[in-house]
Amino acid sequence: MHIILFEDNLSPQLFPATIARPAFAINIGTYRLIHLVRRLSDNIEVIVRPYLKELVLSDYPWVWNAAKGNRSEPVLILNARVVPHIDIIEHFKRLISEGRSGVVSSPHGMACALFSRENPLPNEPIGASQLLGIIEDKKLPPLEIPIPMLEYTHDIIRHQIRIMNDNLNDRLRTREYKEIADGVFSADGRPLGQYCVMDSSEGPIILESDVNIGPYCFFKGPVYVGKKVKIIEHSAMKDAVSLGSITKVGGEVEASIIEPYSNKQHHGFLGHSYLGSWVNLGAGTSNSDLKNTYGEVVMEYANKKVKTGMQFVGCFIGDYAKTAINTSIFTGKTIGACSMVYGFVTTNVPSFVNYARTFGQVTETAVETLVQTQARMFARRNVEQRPCDVQLLRDIYEMTKHERQLANEPLSL
Fold it and tell me: For residues 341 and 285, what is the distance between their CA atoms, to the nearest angstrom?
């Protein structure tokens, strides 16, 4: 079987989650789409935005390319914005066994196309627009299967809450864990800190290997803790929290995703939020995830206001961003990659800025400063700084210049 994961023109709409990674690499419900579909086949081809190509080839060296031979049959073409819910794997297994072909479309783009008995693709590199053209020309019948897709960034948290238990239960079925307390499962059986309280009544709590949990912590499932995570004393993790590997976390975290290598080590609240990689939240940083009116949260994307349909929406922070101590982030705000924020965050924050609007200052950060900072951060975690990592920063800097032209607007609450 041959699988193609492709990014379409709406993938950048998931900013800032997709500014430094393809849409299929976002962690939702503890799974990434590119890892989940490997259960169907190792022949996975990816079509991504050009500036991400070298990074993807370095991070996923096993992806298919033309040098590995022709594309095999059957062929599954999957939008990178598809939500990585374990159920989609079962749907595809059934359709393939039945020899079915067809397409799943939505108002937000084509979700997937399946060719069970033919390979309609040329034996050469192919782009997303050409791929979609071939699918349209084939006039495939519709497949009546639910394939949810991300349209905007806040959908990440919506689906995180919806699918978390299903994906965690799948982990328990397919991997070996030791139950160290009621509903608490550990990959290596490492004991919890003293006087910890674990509530698995609403979902399991899964701890991967080399997790270090301090004393006096509270966990309320569903919760997933990745490898080599450190959770400091007096922390609270509850209601659909997913922590990526090699993160340091403290304070109160609720219904949030933290990607690998990010730190929220000190006290403060993080709720219904998404943090990219290499983010650091200073002590006392907190975000709001509920309006004082208890009404629906409306977010702003590219100067367009979008109703989320959600009462609880926090913040969405891009890779390499930092907050100073006691930073307060208002409801439904986005913070771009490589920015440093201080004080009150009352508006969306562009990438590559020092944001201190409370004090009347928003200034641009030089890209070379971030390259040096990246090298220091990587060295602290024994991670090699590759040419593709440096180039990614420079590409993001050039791509986001238009954002910084709007940074000196009057303060708005």
Answer: 10
Sheet containing strand 361-364, strands side by side? 212-213, 230-231, 248-249, 263-264, 280-281, 322-323, 340-341, 353-356, 361-364
CA pair distance 100, 175, nearest whole angstrom: 30
Give CATH 2.160.10.10 domain extents, the chain.
155-335
- pLDDT score for 323: 98
> DSSP string of 161-174?
HHHHHHHHHHHHHH
pTM listed for this prediction: 0.95
> Apex CA 28: angle with CA 25 and CA 32, to 5°?
35
Reported as a single tens digit per residue, the pLDDT across 236-255 is 999 999 999 999 999 999 99
Adjacency order of strands within the sheet including 252-254: 197-199, 218-220, 236-238, 252-254, 269-271
**Residues sharing a CB contact under 8 Å with residue 339, sequence separation 6 or more, in sequence order:** 318, 321, 322, 349, 350, 351, 352, 353, 354, 355, 365
Rounded CA-CA distance 100/88 in Å is 15
For residues 219 and 197, what is the distance between their CA atoms, to the nearest angstrom? 6
Q: Please enumerate in sequence order all residues whose Cβ is within 8 A of that of 174, keeping only pairs 6 or more positions apart, or say none.
A: none
- pLDDT digits 0-9 by tens, 53-76: 999 999 999 999 866 777 888 999
DSSP bridge partners of 248: 230, 263
Q: Is 230 helix (H, G, I), strand (E, B) or coil?
A: strand
CATH fold of 155-335, please? Answer: UDP N-Acetylglucosamine Acyltransferase; domain 1 (2.160.10)
Mean pLDDT, the chain, rounded, equals 94
Q: What is the DSSP letter of 191?
A: P
Half-sphere exposure for 362 (CA within 13 Å, toward CB): 23
CA distances to 5, 36, 81, 189, 276 from 181, in Å: 39, 28, 36, 10, 31
- Residue entry with tokens 């500014």: 19
Q: Is 199 exposed, middle or buried (0-12, 13-18, 19+ CB in 10 A)?
A: middle
